[in-house]
Amino acid sequence: MSPLPAFDASDPLGIDDLLGDEDRAVRDTVRSWAADRVLPHIAEWYENGELPGIRELARELGSLGALGMPLTGYGCAGASAVQYGLACLELEAADSGIRSLVSVQGSLAMYAIHRFGSEEQRQRWLPAMAAGEVIGCFGLTEPDHGSDPAGMRTRARRDGGDWVLTGRKMWITNGSVAGVAVVWARTDEGVRGFVVPTDAPGFSAPEIKHKWSLRASVTSELVLDEVRLPADAVLPEVSGLRGPLSCLNHARYGIVWGAMGAARSCFESALGYAKEREQFGRPVAGFQLTQAKLADMAVELHKGILLAHHLGRRMDAGRLRPEQVSFGKLNNVREAMEICRTARTVLGANGISLEYPVMRHATNLESVLTYEGTVEMHQLVLGKALTGLDAFRG
Questions:
Q1: Active-site amino acid positions
Q2: pTM of the model
Q3: How far is the C-alpha of 102 from the C-alpha of 118, rounded, in Å?
Q4: Hey, what CATH topology would domain 242-387 get?
């Protein structure tokens, strides 16, 4: 009988054993890129409320194969769901804004075109988006309609052989730097998706400023003022809310992993700090209350990673249900927030300093908790699945 492997504080459950060589290579490549290109600058970007060089970063991410990772063809990597999840974890360990850039590009804009677009739309947009040469955004949320997209007011009407779009979208990641927007609008035929070049007359995307969360991320409003599009701008393979909701489900899966990246960063920061910080003549890591905090954080962190891995294997097998994605997002984001808060207490006053990543991750997760479905929405999705009763409308 071979001896037991040594206990690994960075992988206490041995989850790494579930990964293949290619999985580890993907993870390590993204981790190395983030360490080189993001971590040295992210505190300054966050403090200044900007993401400078976003187009260059997008091209670099494209060269890594990180944009549209699970999609096949058109320059996409055709990676597994688990590999995409590992990439999301490493990107969000750097910052939620960087993972959001990748998620919106690949899981929302590119996924919509790949899954529901025409061959002409795929050929026109996907290779450039996969390479990071064109940034995309996804317009669903409106100023007055977030959790209830069925109430959207943006409309598209036919005018001869054209479509004319009018309306507003809100809280759109990548909006003001995008070259293409996938916009969902109400039509006489139901909700339809449109591929909108952002240089179309009547389209504008003013950037949203004064955010206290996701500060190193481009967030915009989309304004569509009689934007005229040709007939072939519509996504031909879907109508109704099934289209945008399936895209959101794909993006939520990435968040299940990504939230654990933010949590890991905070846990590692707290663990390292506790070993070095001395009080009452010894490191604070030697006190029972601190060890209890570290143990609880480690348990929830690695349970969350194990849950993400399980959902990834189900997605790769074609067996992942939307309710299971809701389960993962609800649990992992909530637990990530609690890990961040606990890590802040371990660091004491230093926990609020940008010298450490804890407060930055904590404030970012306040947005992650809300976007791609609020806590309440995911609770109701699970509640309906458990009871068979729909409580969404009272």
A1: 372
A2: 0.95
A3: 23
A4: Butyryl-CoA Dehydrogenase, subunit A; domain 3 (1.20.140)
